[in-house]
Every structure is written in structure tokens, then in C-alpha cells.
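Q: I'm building a small set of examples for a reading group on sequence design. Run inverse folding on the following structure and report the sequence directly after it, with nothing in between.
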């Protein structure tokens, strides 16, 4: 900060006040009443030469003033309203650390376009597929419910192909799969069918549409590059998990991308 030597025996504050008084007096004598008003408001943000409008007469003033210094309210949802451990709950968290209990749980099921899902998933899944069709994007279903025995066979197939360590990165052990809940589906596309179940699916029109619109229909793209350390799985742009529109809206507003973080559930790799 620059300092100035005190070269006058008169205190600086007196000089400032005298200057202000002289300026105001001159303005009044010249008939520029607004000039005096302006001088008094130089530090208040008023435009030069204007007289402030009374606060009470400005529309919305009270609301704006009340909002000053306040942050937007946090999104509100009772996360205890549904269980994160009950396999029958739409918010159940299933991952490598938290298996289904019981591990051979079998949900009630219905059919959407030839694939089995839970009845509460069906309306939103149907709406999502129809919305994509209306946008000229043809999304196909490639997988949905898989029971314990089927998941065991899928997992063992990956172990035979890749070895246990690599299989754990791309496939769930039986009892640890979201597909076993009836709440998850794998989607594909018609523009580049060779990208189904492949990383390039995320760059297809279908993959981009899903990434942009899935949450509007109650679905999460569950495994992304950004959250793989938490979920424990490699990215899967095709894997959608239904949790309902109220929860996806909450997660979007809160900037939360995983169920583990939302419900404070352990994630990551298998506990060995």
C-alpha cells in the first residue's frame, strides 16, 4: 500500500470534508440538485446523474435483497425413505462390497420388448425407449434380468477368458450383480451394432442420447470413467440402473454420480 507524507499541518480528513462541502455547495448554487445527490452516492453503485428509486417501488427488490449472500437451497429428498440394503428396494446398492441378501434373491418380473425387468422399472423403461424413437434414435435392449445361476455362468465365462483379476473388472460375481435385482438393463444401438458392449458405444448416437437423457426417466449410467474407483467397475456406457425419477433428479442437482456416495455405502473392489 502506498503511503503519503503528511506535508500539511491540517489533518487530511478535514481537507476531504472541506472539499466535499465546497463541491456540494457549488452544485446547489448552480441549480444542479441531482449533482449533489450523485456526489453522495458515488460509492453506492448508482449511475452518475441519477436519483435512486425508492427500494419499495422497485419490483422484486425485497426478494433480491433477501437473496443477497444466500446460497441456493440444497436439493431435498429423504434418502431414508427407501432401503439401500433390502433387495426389494429400488434404491438397493449392489456392488463388490455389498452383495444381495440373500445372494440368490429373485424379484418379481415383467417383460419390456422381450426382456425381463421388475414391474416398477417397466413404465420408465418404456418411456425412455419411446422418447429415443421419437428423437430418431433407435435404442435396443441387449440384456436385463439375470438370475443367480445365469450370473454365475456369465462370470465364469469371463474368468475362463480373462482370468479372475480381469474378470472382476468387467463382470460381477453371482450375488453381486445389479442385473440380478431386475433393476438394470444393458442397451445397444443400430447405427454401430459392433459397439454394443464395447467402449465405443458411448460415442454412438445411442450412447450419447442415453448419457444426456437417461436420468430424466429414472435411470443412471451406473459405471462411468469418472466414478470407476467408487463403483469398482470399468466404464460401461450401456449399463443403465433404474432408481426412479425422484432420486435421479436429486443426484443431478446434488452433483452426485454414484449410489455409494449417496447412501454412504462402501465401494471399490472385492474384500478379499
Amino acid at each position: 500500500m502506498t503511503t503519503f507524507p503528511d506535508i500539511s499541518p491540517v489533518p487530511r480528513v478535514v481537507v476531504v470534508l472541506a472539499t466535499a462541502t465546497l463541491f456540494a455547495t457549488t452544485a446547489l448554487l448552480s441549480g444542479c440538485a441531482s449533482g449533489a445527490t450523485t456526489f453522495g452516492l458515488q460509492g453506492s453503485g448508482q449511475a452518475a446523474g441519477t436519483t435512486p428509486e425508492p427500494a419499495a417501488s422497485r419490483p422484486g427488490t425485497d426478494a433480491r435483497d433477501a437473496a443477497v449472500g444466500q446460497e441456493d437451497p440444497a436439493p431435498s429428498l429423504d434418502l431414508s425413505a427407501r432401503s439401500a440394503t433390502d433387495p426389494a428396494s429400488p434404491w438397493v446398492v449392489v456392488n463388490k462390497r455389498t452383495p444381495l441378501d440373500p445372494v440368490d434373491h429373485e424379484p418379481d418380473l415383467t417383460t419390456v420388448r422381450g426382456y425381463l425387468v421388475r414391474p416398477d422399472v417397466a413404465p420408465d423403461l418404456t418411456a425412455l425407449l419411446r422418447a429415443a424413437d421419437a428423437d430418431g434414435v433407435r435404442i435396443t435392449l441387449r440384456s436385463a434380468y439375470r438370475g443367480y445361476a445365469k450370473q454365475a455362468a456369465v462370470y465364469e465365462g469371463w474368468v475362463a477368458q480373462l482370468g479372475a483379476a480381469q474378470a472382476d473388472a468387467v463382470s460381477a460375481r453371482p450375488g453381486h450383480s445389479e442385473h440380478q435385482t431386475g433393476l438394470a438393463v444393458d442397451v445397444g444401438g443400430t447405427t454401430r451394432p459392433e459397439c454394443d458392449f464395447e467402449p465405443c458405444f458411448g460415442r454412438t448416437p445411442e450412447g450419447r442420447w442415453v448419457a444426456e437423457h437417461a436420468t430424466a426417466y429414472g435411470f443412471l449410467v451406473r459405471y462411468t470413467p469418472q466414478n470407476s474407483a467408487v463403483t469398482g467397475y470399468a466404464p460401461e456406457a450401456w449399463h443403465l440402473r433404474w432408481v426412479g425419477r425422484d432420486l435421479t433428479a436429486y443426484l443431478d442437482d446434488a452433483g452426485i454420480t454414484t449410489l455409494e456416495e449417496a447412501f454412504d455405502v462402501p465401494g471399490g473392489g472385492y474384500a478379499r
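The chain has a mean pLDDT of 81.
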